[in-house]
Amino acid sequence: MSSIGIEKRTASSGVRGLTLDPVRIRSALGRWFMFSDYGAAAQRHMAIVWSCVLGYVLVDVIWLQGSRLAFAPSNWTVLLQGVAYSAFAGVFIAVASGRLAGDHRRPAVLLRRVLLLTELLWRTALPIGGLLVAGALLTYLITAANLPARDDVLADIDHLLGFDWPSFLQAANASPLVVKLLVRAYNALGLISELVLISMVLRRRGDRIAEFLAVLSLSTVAVCIGMALVPAAGAFAHFRPAPHLFANFSAACEMWPFYRSFVALRDGTLSVFDLSALDGIVSFPSFHTMLGVMTAYAARDTRWLLIPVLAVNGTMILATMPVGGHHLCDVLAGAALTIGAILLVRRQSTATPIHLQHAPAGA
User: Fold this and answer.
1) Which residue of 132, 269, 279, 300 pairs with 261 in a disulfide if CB–CB is 3.0 to 4.6 A?
2) Closest CA to 71 of 273, 261, 265, 275
3) Which residue, among 348, 38, 31, has the nearest Cα to 207 in the 3D structure?
4) Are 164 and 294 in contact (CB under 8 A)?
5) Residue pair 209/43 in contact by the 8 Å Cβ criterion
6) CA torsion angle for 135, 138, 144, 150 (degrees, to 10)?
7) What Rg value do the Cα atoms of the chain yield, rounded?
8) DSSP code per residue over 222-234
9) Could you tell me the pTM of the whole model?
10) Burial per residue of 11-45, b for 16 or more beta-carbon CB atoms within 10 angstroms, e otherwise
11) For each of the chain's 363 residues, which pLDDT tens digit applies?
């Protein structure tokens, strides 16, 4: 079944060709935004997602007016291209699905399945793109506010927990094999996240995708609140380790590249938000840790995928301290906030929907 309201009129109508049905267009919009076809829980999850996206946009627009940060004009070209590509993809999938709807031949059935999977992948990418753009802009605005850094507090808490970051960095740096594993695991986060999402798409688990997106949305809100309440440059900036303490790491990768953007935003030398040159600038809480926890949770019912995801993400979370330059507090906070987001979403999933009560017949 096509997801857009395009239908052929019969010959008796006297009009040939295609016509748009407003009712089916509204239904299609419900599908595109994942509100209508995966159950009440998914609908509630997507309400969270789109509320977060709209909330980000509203805060960004208001904050930009009084910020020294500017929105690069080239961003509008990128955004308009994204909208155009999305619209083209939606129309193409809808028209192609409609043309194949009555064809029961094996190639047509296979093509319909491919189109359905492509549509679900596209519908998954839409809110992620919105969260990425609007959420990243908010992290830049928060950093550009140049709030007092609290790395000393985070380092003191680490010390109370018995964790010494420079000693951990030196111990990890001592083994080239450990360095190689940590660097590769740290850089594999994007690939692992994509594999988990594609796995859910291939299994047509739109309900699980909506759940993942809700957890992601709440986690990004927690990130922005956390970095506003506890601004931090990171353990590497606080401790300023001697080069020999991370010599093997620096030979394997560029160390802590986000710090340049972080400092430039705070001192005003970086005054333009440019989508073509985005850097992750979040130190507290660790967003790498958050993604590691939520992708492992999303893969929980796929054993063949869960085991490697746990192995890679567990290694990646360790790598956030020497490779990402995070305090232990950043990691613990990231994990705790994501678990909290998961519990909130699970509680919403099991909420009893409200139904209208009908009076008994003859009452």
Assistant:
1) 279
2) 273
3) 38
4) no
5) no
6) -80
7) 24
8) HHHHHHHHS----
9) 0.84
10) eeeeeeeeeeeeebeebbeebbbbbbebeebbbbb
11) 444 443 443 334 444 444 556 666 666 666 677 667 788 888 899 999 999 999 999 999 999 998 989 999 999 998 998 888 888 887 888 788 778 777 778 887 888 888 888 888 888 998 999 999 999 999 999 999 999 999 999 999 999 999 999 999 999 999 999 999 999 999 999 999 999 999 999 998 989 999 999 999 999 999 999 999 999 999 998 999 998 888 888 876 677 777 888 889 999 898 999 988 888 888 899 999 999 999 999 999 888 999 999 999 999 999 999 999 999 999 999 999 999 999 999 987 776 554 434 434 333
CB 3 within 8 A of CB 93: yes
Q: Do the beta carbons of residue 143 and residue 227 sit within 8 Å?
A: yes
Name 70's bridge partners: 272
Q: E strands, 181-333, where?
A: 272-273
Measured between alpha carbons, how far is 164 from 169 in angstroms, rounded to an integer? 9
Asked whether the beta carbons of 112 and 97 are under 8 A apart, the reply is: yes
* Residue owning tokens 């999303």: 298
Q: Are 279 and 324 in contact (CB under 8 A)?
A: no
